[in-house]
Amino acid sequence: MSNSAEFTYDLSEMLPFEGLSSLRPGTSVLVTGPTMAGKDRLLYDVLGDGVSQNEAGIVVTTDGDGGESVDMVRSKAETADDSLLSAIDCRAQSDREETERDDGSCVYSVSSPSEFTSIGIGITDAFSRAEEANVTRGRLALTSLSTMVRYADQKTVFKFCHVLSQRLNSAGFIGLFTLNSDAHDEQTISVIKQAFDANIEIREVDGEKQGRVLGLGSQPTEWRPLS
């Protein structure tokens, strides 16, 4: 698959912020916020929106079940071609095992969130499935980098994210990654942020979830309520 400048990705329906209505292929976005702030739900919403538009959807889950993650994306989609849905399950008991489910979706098993080579192979297989289906657009979600940081040092996770960003660019996909801001020190967060094109910050004020975007303009956007 090759990158194309003829289209962009529009995330403004889920995230009404300046700059998110026309993301170029290859853009990688880090979503940060406290634990249980709704970051994962946001990523599933974004993937479900893409699948509804016949884009490929790839979930890399480091702390959940791959099949359940695929089902969650499907539940967010108005329509879905299950053959375009893939998950890389990083908490499986087996390693490098690919399972095609009855609905046509695929789950690739990896034994640990620190098995970066195996995770990369699973993502490559998901890209190949899309290419074989003549699908040139897609969205990848990784939840959560915080789990990876518990298994590997911050520099190793940064390198993984940097390489994956390059592969997203080659495929013409976009990627969104979550990180729990209350689980790491500022230095760790600062190092990992450098691997991404933009950052969506989420916070909660008086029971209301709010978000803002950094990196897509000269200044951060204003904080706005998130539904």
From TrEMBL:
Pfam (any one): DUF7504
Lineage: superkingdom: Archaea
Classification via Gene3D superfamilies: P-loop containing nucleotide triphosphate hydrolases
SUPFAM superfamilies reported for this sequence: P-loop containing nucleoside triphosphate hydrolases
Annotated InterPro entries: DUF7504 (IPR055927), P-loop_NTPase (IPR027417)
Name of protein: RAD55 family ATPase
Organism of provenance: Halovenus rubra
Origin organism lineage: Archaea, Methanobacteriati, Methanobacteriota, Stenosarchaea group, Halobacteria
